[in-house]
Amino acid sequence: MHMHVTCDPLKNESNLAKHGVDLSSAAYLDWSEVMAHVDTRRDYREVREIGFGVIDERLFCVVFTQRGDTMHIISLRKANHREVRDYVEQTQNRHADSG
């Protein structure tokens, strides 16, 4: 399931410089498969989520807020080795539990 995504143009420039990834690439995530949790590290004045999903067979970490039927993208980067390992473990456990 593809969602409409938005982002702040300045944040996109910053993300490109820092991570080499355009925030609009989040449109290619299959949002029905994104594993996300609420970011409670601080008060962002809106519900901010951290999720992991695949684009072109590569795992990405996406930080976003849901605004109606739109995902507002705050950050998008390639997942690191630890995050990939954790994602694989969680998806294997999720599929084992549903089988």
From TrEMBL:
Taxonomic placement: Bacteria, Pseudomonadati, Pseudomonadota, Betaproteobacteria, Burkholderiales
Lineage top rank: taxon: Bacteria
Organism: Paraburkholderia solisilvae
InterPro entries, sorted: BrnT_sf, BrnT_toxin
Entry protein name: BrnT family toxin
